[in-house]
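Quiz preparation item.
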């Protein structure tokens, strides 16, 4: 399969077309580093659709609308890197500090969590594992976990809950593997009890349909990184619209709200967490929500 070498004019022109498609569909900007990896990422798409070169693919994308091809290209170009209990200290803080606070605050005994940009689901499953391991503490509570991502292939995998040996070796304790997964050929499958806890939906943060009402805890980790500052502010505005005055937002280690609008402030109690600016209005549903 001939892929024009990165750096040639043909490659750069194809890369521009493919980056533009990715940005239009997801808001993501391909950094130079990721543009170099484009050819590796797209190899399976070229093979499946029978394109000889990345140039042919780009030319076809320009010439005719094929939603399936568009989607395959976008899925291939997205960075879906994730792992169980990624940044373990964040999960420890959720477990030891944030959830106990929510338990104290919520007289209605509902816990609502949104994993926004959940990729293949490890983040949401990590939360579900911690909650299930403490089942007595949550007796009588209604727990809702929404997990959304724009990548249809990532959401499919998340829903199926099937992970390779290599994936479960990254971050998952052996006890949790034995307790919450079952062998599935050479892979592992998340138990039905955990799968049932999570509502996985394909959803675009710039055209959101899945979230509703306010969430007590929102995780949007390692997602903003690839957006322009304006787009980051836009996503934070959306997350603020789905927050109440005591919600907690967690971003990835290299991400911050600072410089991206004024919807969230560093949290006074939870290191690395963010709190919505004092709320301004009640949502139509009656819960305290900010107006975006
Ligand atoms: C690097 S992964 C992070 C996964 C997980 N949050 C974590 O930290 O392990 C970033 C995810 O954001 C998703 N994403 C990118 N743009 C998006 C958009 N516009 N709407 C929803 N999800 C998006 C990607 O598909 C990808 O799965």
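Solution:
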């Amino acid at each position: 399969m001939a892929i024009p070498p990165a750096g040639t004019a043909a490659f750069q022109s194809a890369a521009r077309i493919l980056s533009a498609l990715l940005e239009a569909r997801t808001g993501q900007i391909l950094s130079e580093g990721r543009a170099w990896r484009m050819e590796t990422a797209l190899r399976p798409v070229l093979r499946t659709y029978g394109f000889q070169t990345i140039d042919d693919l780009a030319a076809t994308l320009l010439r005719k609308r094929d939603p399936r091809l568009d989607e395959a290209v976008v899925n291939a170009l997205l960075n879906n890197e994730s792992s169980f209990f990624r940044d373990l200290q964040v999960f420890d803080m959720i477990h030891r500090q944030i959830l106990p606070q929510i338990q104290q605050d919520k007289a209605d005994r509902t816990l609502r969590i949104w994993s926004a940009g959940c990729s293949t689901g490890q983040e949401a499953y990590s939360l579900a594992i911690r909650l299930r391991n403490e089942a007595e503490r949550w007796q009588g509570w209604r727990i809702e976990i929404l997990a959304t991502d724009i990548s249809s292939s990532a959401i499919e995998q998340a829903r199926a809950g099937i992970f390779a040996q290599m994936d479960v070796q990254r971050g998952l304790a052996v006890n949790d593997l034995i307790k919450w997964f079952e062998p599935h050929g050479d892979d592992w499958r998340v138990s039905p009890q955990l799968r049932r806890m999570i509502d996985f939906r394909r959803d675009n943060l710039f055209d959101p349909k899945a979230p509703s009402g306010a969430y007590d805890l929102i995780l949007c980790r390692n997602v903003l990184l690839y957006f322009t500052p304006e787009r980051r502010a836009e996503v934070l505005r959306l997350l603020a619209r789905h927050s109440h005055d005591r919600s907690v937002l967690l971003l990835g280690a290299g991400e911050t709200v600072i410089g991206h609008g004024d919807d969230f402030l560093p949290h006074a109690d939870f290191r690395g967490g963010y709190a919505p600016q004092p709320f301004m209005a009640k949502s139509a549903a009656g819960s305290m929500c900010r107006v975006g």
